[in-house]
Amino acid sequence: MAIRLGNTCANCENLMEQNMCAIHKVTVSKIYTCDGFKMKAALNDDRNCVSCLRYEGSECANPQKAAPGMLCSSWAPRAMA
């Protein structure tokens, strides 16, 4: 089975700040997709504690170990774009 990026809003160039769709003008989530999907030209693959939404927060899964450059299974993007 091949592994590939999904045609979801998280990978769509029409996703604006605060998860607003530029085409449909509604708030969407990363699991949504539609016929107007257009893949982002470049995806940000900078996944580590510094780019994690939970870094140095109360929801961090590993607060005693979290450090720049580290990646864990609880990583969440700080920003969608």
- Number of DSSP strands? 0
Low-confidence stretches: none
Number of separate structural domains? 2
Mean pLDDT: 85
Radius of gyration: 15 Å
> Structural class, from secondary structure content?
little secondary structure
What fraction, in percent, of the residue positions are helical?
A: under 10%
Question: What is the general shape?
Answer: elongated
Summarize the SSE layout with pairings.
Elements: no helix or strand
Can you give a write-up of this model?
This protein has 81 residues and is largely without helices or strands. It folds into 2 domains: 1-41, no CATH class; 44-81, no CATH class. The chain is elongated and about 45 Å long. The two termini are 29 Å apart. 7% of the residues are buried.
What descriptive keywords fit this protein?
81 residues, little secondary structure, 2 domains, elongated
Short description:
Helices cover 0% and strands 0% of the residues. The chain has no helix or strand.
